Structure formats: C-alpha cells, structure tokens
Amino acid sequence: MRTTERERGQSDGARLPGGVPPPRPLTSPAVTTPVVRIGLLGCGTVGAALAALVGEQRDTIAARAGVDLRITRVAVRDLGRVRDVDLDPSVFTTDAAAVVTDPDVDVVVEVMGGVDPARDLVLAALAAGKPVVTANKELLATAGAEVFSAADAAQVDLLFEAAVAGGIPLVRPLRESLRGEPITRVMGIVNGTTNYILTRMAEAGAAYADALAEAQALGYAEADPTADVEGHDAGSKCAILASIAFGAQVTAADVHREGISRITAADIAYAARKGYVVKLLAVAELLPAADGGHDISARVHPAFVPATHPLAAVRESFNAVFVEGEAVGDLMFYGRGAGGGPTASAVLGDLIDAAVNRQHHTHGSIGELRPARLRPLDQLSSPFYICLEVADRPGVLAAVAGVFGRHGVSISSVEQTGRAERADLVFITHSAVEANVRATLAELGDLDVVRDIGSVLRVLDDL
Amino acid sequence: MRTTERERGQSDGARLPGGVPPPRPLTSPAVTTPVVRIGLLGCGTVGAALAALVGEQRDTIAARAGVDLRITRVAVRDLGRVRDVDLDPSVFTTDAAAVVTDPDVDVVVEVMGGVDPARDLVLAALAAGKPVVTANKELLATAGAEVFSAADAAQVDLLFEAAVAGGIPLVRPLRESLRGEPITRVMGIVNGTTNYILTRMAEAGAAYADALAEAQALGYAEADPTADVEGHDAGSKCAILASIAFGAQVTAADVHREGISRITAADIAYAARKGYVVKLLAVAELLPAADGGHDISARVHPAFVPATHPLAAVRESFNAVFVEGEAVGDLMFYGRGAGGGPTASAVLGDLIDAAVNRQHHTHGSIGELRPARLRPLDQLSSPFYICLEVADRPGVLAAVAGVFGRHGVSISSVEQTGRAERADLVFITHSAVEANVRATLAELGDLDVVRDIGSVLRVLDDL
Questions:
Q1: CB contact under 8 A, B345 and A353
Q2: In chain A, what are the helix, strand and coil shares in percent, each to the nearest 5?
Q3: What's the CA gap between B323 and B174, in Å, rounded?
C-alpha cells in the first residue's frame, strides 16, 4: 500500500509506537513538511553533486518550497566503486528498473546519460505515474517527442533544464516566461569545450592542436574529443532548443553539423582584424515559407560573430544562448554549461518543481510537438568568409573572382596574405545563397591556380 | 452570480438558445478553452503593447497553455484620449476600484505605475481573491512585503517579472529555477538610460552632458533625468532583487545610492586604458556575519568593471543581471529592460501563468520575507579609483600619499595626467574599507595642495 506524503512525513522519526501521532510541535513546522522520495539513476559527477546539494539545502528547500527531499534509492552500475556521497549504503542498487517502479519512489531523477537504457527507464517511470527529471540531452534529442508524449499521457512532469546549457535557467524561461512570445531564433554557444579552445586560439594566438591539448590537460576535453569538436554534443542541444522554442519535432539527426577542427589561428586572427570573434554556434531558426507557413533551420557550425555582439564576449568554457522574440527583442542567458555543481543546480530546480507540483496534483507540459518542416541548408543565405591557398602569380585574383561572379556570389572584401612559400586569398562575401557558395567552391577546387580551399565560415550579419 | 470558466467558454457564441449546450465540435477544441477575463489597470505604452500582444497571440496561447485570454475591463485616467488599441470602447472605464472587484474579472494586470493608488488597488484585487500581475517596481520596492503577504493570505498569484529588468526572464528563474541554489550575489545593469549614456561616453568619447542630451533626443531619457541618472530607478530594482534573491525585506530606502552625473570623459578614458568599463551597478549581496548569520548589502553605484567581465559587454540601453550561486556558479540574464514590447512580453508570460494556475486552483508564492540585517556601506571593502585635481608642484604626491597611508588605504597605482592649467593625480587602491577611504577623502579635502576631489569609483575585483 502506498502511504501518503503526510503519513510519510510524520512517520519519519515523529510517530509514536502504536501509531498515535504526537501533537504537532509549534516550534518545528518542518516535521510535517511532506517528504518526497527520490529515486536517482546514476551517481557520477552530477549525481554526487546533486546528493550533496540536496543534503545541504534540505532545510532551506523545506522552508521555501514546502517539500522535504530525500534520496531514497540510487541505481548505479558498480556497487563496489568508492563514492564521495553522504548517503546510506543501503540505498544503492544495480537494479535501475526496480528503482523506477518502486512504490516508495515518488520522483525519478535520471543523470546516467545515453539513450539506452535511459529511454526505457524514463518511459517506465512515466508509465508508473512518476514525474521524471532528466539531464540527458542524447535521450531528448533522439526520442524527445516520444518521452514528452509519454509524460503528457501519464499527466506527470518531465523536466530537463540540465539537458541544455547545464546550469543556465533556459528551458523554464522558454517554456514558461516566453510562452506567449513569438520566438524567431535561438542561437547559442552550447559547448564549453569548443568555446574554451576557440577562446585560447583568439586570446593566446594558440594553434588548434595546442588549444585542444590544453583543454584536455584541464579536463575540459575528452581524450577522444570528437563529440565536442565535431559538434555532436552541440547538435543534440540544438535539436532540443528547436523543439522547445518552436514546439516542433526536431531530432539530432535533423541538425546540420560542422565542427571546429579545421579552423586555423590565421582564420581567427583575420576575424579579429575585421572586428569578429569565431564561435561555434547552435542555431535554431523559424523561417517564413512561401506558403504562409514556417520552416525550421537547425544547424551547428562555427561563425564569425561581430565583436560587439553579446555572444562574442562569452569566453573560456562558459555557455550562452541568445533568444530573439518579436515582442521581447533580444535576450541572452549566460552561465556554466557543464560540470557537477551547475548541472546539479539545474536538476535540483526541476526536482523542487516536480515535487511541489506533485503535492498540488498538477504538472507542466510542453504540449505536443508538431512535425517540423526543415529548410535545407542550401537555401539559407549569409555572408561567408572563404580562405583559399593560391598560386602567387598575376591573373589569379581575376580567375578566382570570375568563379564567384558566375555563381552570383558577390565579394565584399578580398585580401592577399602572402607568406614565404604560399599566398592566401581571403574573401568576405556579401550575403549569398549556400547552394551558390557550394557551387563556387566546387568550381574553385577545379582551378589549377587554387592549391587548397581552407576554411569556409559563415558570418553572422545581424548587427 | 459568478459563472465558471467552462460556462463562460461555452457561452461565448457557442451556447444555443434555451441554454442547451451544443455537442462539442471535434474539429475546434478551442471553443471549450476556458476564457480568462483580464482587468487591465493602465493603458499607456505597456498596456497598449500588452493588448496588441494578447490579440495576436490568443490562438497560440490557447493551443499551448489551454487558456483563452480576453481583456474585458480597462481602467484609464482619461477616457477621451485616443489610443491605438484594438479593444471595444465599452471596456474602458475611469473607475479602477470597480475593475479590481468586478466579479467578471478573473485576473488583474496593473501597469499604471507609482505607489498610489496602485497599492490600494492591488491589495483590493488580492483581497477579492484575484491573481495580480504587476510591472510596478515602485510599488514592490516600497510595499513589497505587504503585497506579497496579502497575496499569500489570499492564496493567489502575485507575479511581477516585468518590474525588474523589463522583458528579461529573471524573477521566475530566481524564484523557481534557483529555489534550491544558495545565491550569494546579484549584480546588474538595470537602468537602460544610464547604460546608454555610459556607452556613448565610452565609445564616442562624449562628455556626460552631451551623451545625456543624445539619450533625451532618442527618448531614452526624460526631460528631468534625475530618476535615472541619480540611481533612483535602479535603487527600486535593487531592493526587489535583494528581496527575492535572499527572501528578505529590503525596500528602496534601504539601498545606498550614487548616480553617474559627476562621471567625466576622463574617468572613462582612464578606465579603458586600465582594462575597465564604467557601468552603473545595482548590487545585492549576502555577506557572512561574525555571529554566523548573514548581512545583506544593497547598493547602486557606478563601478570600474573589468573589460573581460560579461557585464562589460552590455552596451547601449540593454540591461543584464549577473547572478552568483554557490553550486551553479556565475549566471547572466541579458535583454531589454524597458519599452512597451519587452515589458508587455514579460507581463504576458506572468499573465498566462496566473491564468493557468487559476484553472488548476494553484498559485506560486515567494514565501514570507524575513527582516533584513543591512550591512552599513562603511564596512564594505573594494579597490577604489580616485581622481584628485592637485597643485602641480614638487612634494604634492608625497603629501597626498601620506594621507592614504595614515588611513590604511594602500595604493596599487598612481598616475599624473598633467594638462595646461591643471594636474590630476589618478589612484587605484588595493582593496580598502569604505570608512577608511571616506576618512582619507575628508583629510585630502583639507590639504591646500588638493584643489578638487573628482570621481571616486569602486572597482569590481572578482575576476
């Protein structure tokens, strides 16, 4: 039989033998604060930070939010691993499936990551009527529509503030504060590793490989940095941002993705000379379509960002998400996108919300996600930065410029940066259609005066 | 007799004569979306922008949030004034007191500003059991504890996102996302007028008077700019930020306040040379006290902000609030702090929340505000920038430096910037206690070699 929260609260050391409750003490109202029992899936960096934070903040949370949070079950892979967590050893188990259906668990917190088995566990928890708080970007970027819809069917909360931009309160403002706001674009620096690398390249003039090695030494980058530097991590977050900003089904597979591993110190130095900073951006955009509806563009790529744009000032491993709305104008949310403390802070905010909602028999919903019509990249337009290594002889610029002209790509500036053994032609174009730029590059690749096509980067031109 | 929302929703053109409801049409679920009737107090820039936004977004809000928002009563001062608002003329009245108690009003939105009569009207609305959304910073900074407590007693929402930093979702993240987070400091640029003036002084080298005139010409500053440039507006917002961040009773009268009207182009140029930007900051800080408790410091003053700090990149009339938490680290919320569209967007987010909560018979609460123990300014410490006009003759620096030394104020750097008819000594101190700096300045003022004490500005030293 399932006890009510009130009964649990009183039974916690306050119930006399024989079941007679003591008189309610006037000096300690916390005794009757309803207990909410948490089943935690995963106890790595985030799980351990959460357990510590819940322990430290329990009284404050009880006073401010009226719920007494207790972590009562913790599913881990390896019971033998030593953990710096102040929890009774008896709460640990390797049977995650038993945690999510345990009648003595009120709210499930999933911080294990990955799609399997997290997906099945989250769905089972929701089916059992339990609110779920998750920090799992892969899960939501892969099976978001499915789990959101399962939460709606079960009429319980599915909260995921920590899944995008770590500790930054972003999902809640998008879901709630901006519910009545026509949002047109969400654009962010959502990967701290790549932002650290790009910051070091810009500020210390470091080469990509050296900045990456430094990030690895500091623990910001993995030994295999692919997920970060090739934009996979940012792609998952981009899919979630597009889904919640536009109420549309966008998965990681829908997101066009380019990484930063080919960016050179010369690209970044050139950007700086022209008043730009190179940033890896996740962009989710709502674009008016010819039929009166809207298409969605979701993409991750490095870009020249004007130095006066607020995103340009986001340094080191910080994240920031820029939100543009028709009424509200430009907003930006800045903070730590990763790390135990910030992520646990975001999970805790959600957890309190889920616990309070559960007490009030209410829950939030992001609503049903509509199928998205994605606009192909080829149809987008922006100015481009294009760096070509060319033969250093007369007539080269005319030949190269002719190719641009034939494809309708108009040149805003060109600069030759010669060195001992090579010459680079560096172009900034006016706004050009991606397909035309692609055709230009294909034809340039066939010219024998073009030795190599270097970086090709979009330029953010909204200022 | 008060009708229920369901009855109202059906009666809205969908009820047949004789009171027999028609079968619920499968294709138009919106017909049964409960109507929430809004009584609007004030119809100036924000009220008109809100009416337009509600009109445009009604269907989207109904689909996403399940409430059909209708502005049914609007209290204005002058019925004769021509308004660009698409509302039936019959909704307007000059009797605001009748609007807040009208049984046909479900939620009250107060965008009239000022303490009187807004305070009585808001209290009357709450006493009548109606949720209130307000954009009124003066009201909350003067009588916040009273109206919060009235809302709790009535068990209805009192929401005020628009009262601080206009369109920026900040109050909700502080109240909800960061409920479990130990916040140590909230520090922001919360006045767009002064930020515009300081930006023009920094970027165009303009004198204060010229930058102010430019802000007035653009409509950013009032003909009498006192409320902005002397920090009164920022002081009200600082009081509200301190109240919600720390759950404490802090009013505008508790906030130490210094404005920007004495800052010179030379101060700003010197700051730039040293790697700083001058910003008017509202700072609400939780400070550990000797007795194990905490004091609160709430103050508004210009400061040297390191150029690499995210607040330094906040330009023109934008606002931003930097939040520091123990677990989450540094956060920043950036956007438009004023203007019809942004403010209306924030009001609408609250309005949807209040309407949805009302349907679910639930409401939020910021909890009871505890009395605050304010730390006197004299006990705070920071580095200082101090500019003195002195006689240009030998021995002056020794005399001046001796005064600093006698008061325990240690000098980090000093520079003499001579001009034709005057010499300035510009100091940056190490971190010093305010009381000691004040005593230093008093003694310096008595030295005959000191002709004038110019700007004295605190230096933000957390980077």
A1: no
A2: 40, 25, 35
A3: 9
Q: Tell me if B115 is assigned to some domain.
A: yes
Query: Is residue A198 one of the residues assigned to a domain?
Result: yes
Backbone angles phi, psi at A386, to 5 degrees: -135, 125
- Interface A-B: count of C-beta contacts within 8 A: 184
Residue of B nearest to A368 (CA): B64
8 Å CB contact of B173 and A169: yes
Tens of pLDDT, residue by residue, chain A (463 residues):
333 333 333 333 333 333 333 334 344 444 589 999 999 999 999 999 999 999 999 998 998 889 999 999 999 999 988 888 999 999 999 999 999 999 999 999 999 999 999 999 999 999 999 999 999 999 999 999 999 999 999 999 999 999 999 999 999 999 888 888 899 999 999 999 999 999 999 999 999 999 999 999 999 999 999 999 999 999 999 999 999 999 999 999 999 999 999 999 999 999 999 999 999 999 999 999 999 999 999 999 999 999 999 999 999 999 999 999 999 999 999 999 999 999 999 999 999 999 999 998 888 888 788 999 999 999 999 999 999 999 988 889 999 999 999 999 999 999 988 665 678 999 999 999 999 999 999 999 999 999 999 999 999 986 4
Residue B136 maps to which CATH number? 3.40.50.720
Residue-range definition of the domain harbouring residue A202: 172-335
B324 CA: distance to closest CA in chain A (Å): 10
- For the annotated catalytic residues of A, the residue numbers are 237
Cβ contacts (< 8 Å) between B335 and chain A: which residues? Answer: 328-332
d(CA B344, CA B167): 7
Name the residue in chain B with its Cα closest to that of A347: B177
Structure tokens at A243: 């889904």
Q: Per residue in B182-214, is it b (16+ CB within 10 Å) or e — as a string?
A: bbbbbbbbbbbbbbbbbbbbbeeebebeebbeb
Q: What is the ipTM of this complex?
A: 0.88
Could A179 and B65 be called an inter-chain contact, meaning their C-beta atoms sit closer than 8 Å?
yes
pTM above 0.95, yes or no: no
- Using the Cα atoms of residue B335, residue B338, residue B340 and residue B345 in order, give the sign of their dihedral: positive
Active-site positions of B read 237
Q: Across the interface, do A349 and B176 touch by the CB < 8 Å criterion? A: yes
Tell me how close the Cα of B70 comes to any Cα of chain A, in angstroms: 14
Query: Residue B388 in 3-state DSSP?
Result: strand
Domains contained in chain B, number = 3
Contacts with A172 from chain B: Cβ below 8 Å: 172-173, 176-177
Q: A262 with A384, same domain?
A: no
Provide the CATH number for the domain around residue B408.
3.30.70.260
Positive or negative torsion for Cα A60, A61, A67, A73:
negative
